[in-house]
Design goal:
Blueprint: E1 3-4, H1 11-22, E2 26-27, E3 33-34, E4 36-40, H2 42-45, H3 51-58, E5 69-73, H4 76-81, E6 90-92, E7 98-100, H5 107-120, E8 121-130, E9 135-150, E10 155-171
Antiparallel strand pairs: 1-9, 2-3, 4-10, 5-8, 6-7, 8-9, 9-10
Amino acid sequence: MITLHPKTLTEPQLIQALTTTTQSLLYPSESDYPITIKTLSAADIGDKLTISEVARHLYTQQQLTPPQRILKRTLVYWTKTFFGNLPQLLIRYSDGSYSVQPPEHPVELWRTLHGLVFDHLIHVALWHCILNGVESDLHLIGRHVLIQHDPDTNAANLQLGNWVALSTRIVQT
């Protein structure tokens, strides 16, 4: 008998958990912006997300500033760069020094968000959409996966769902 893995979340549960976790988070840059969650239909997109799909689904005709350039960063380094040191209380540097996050920094929320992304999404990529010389949008997008478990054989079955986007904006001058 195949059952849901006890740690997996259905898509509605994942969206609710992401929404709740990001509700009070601001993505740090020169101007802090909220993180928004959006579901992108796998039936409409298919198995591979392309630059044109990102532009079509995340930037409407009415938008005043469509991206000048969209860069896809798929390597684990780039997707983890989205989180940087945010989920860490103690930050270690390559020279052996360290620093500590301030008491008001929401380490637990960033850890929860990191876990939700990397435990429930596959094919995760960071899409860096350059709007102008100062502003860029960041979209961390992955495909939801529901993990089913067969206790008789200990086999896991992955059921692919829709694409999920975590979006924010950064300002760098």
